[in-house]
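Morning, I've got a small favour to ask if you have a moment. I've dropped the whole record in just underneath, so have a look.
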Amino acid sequence: MTATDPALTALAQGWCALSLLHGRIEAHIERALQAKHDLSVREYSLLDVLSRQHDGTGGHLQMKQVADAVVLSQSATTRLVTRLEDRGLLARYLCLTDRRGIYTNVTEAGLKLLGEARPTNESALREAMDQAERKPELAPLVRALETLGAPA
């Protein structure tokens, strides 16, 4: 394979288009969440992931699992948790069966804010996807994404 190999070039172009689509969507959602709810995309994602925890087996996420879910390093996730905890949106507590384990729960205030922000997130996502679909280089990716959630 050489640097001018057509397959490599097509792969690189596809990656650039995917990166562009992701950046546009994230920026659009970020502006909407910041303007209406004073939340970043990462903060919203963290609240959303943590709100889906449950008390059953495997229901509480360890910090590494949370970091993986929001696509951040463990240290960046810890800083994000601390910021949201300082705002009263999250609370940490020790695991009852393993005193070394620390879990994080969304507070009532965090659940309320998440509930208010969810329609904004979904609307901004739809708007960003609609805008991207009008760009010929992004339209195939938008169509591919929309088929991911469609029933088989």
Observations:
- The first strand starts at residue 90 and ends at 94.
- The chain has a mean pLDDT of 90.
